[in-house]
Amino acid sequence: MRLKIKKLRVRMRTELNIAQLARWLNPIISGWIAYYGCYYRSALYASVVSFYIMLE
Fold it and tell me: What is the pTM assigned to this prediction?
């Protein structure tokens, strides 16, 4: 997941406002939460933390 987050290059998408970013990222993040929340919770936590840090 961390590699996928890096490949998305969210920080480079400066033309998007917060609502557009949310529309773009919500399906991706929701899918990760659904899958990893059931099967691999520790990986989910680590990825969420790294995603949060990346967005700062």
Answer: 0.59
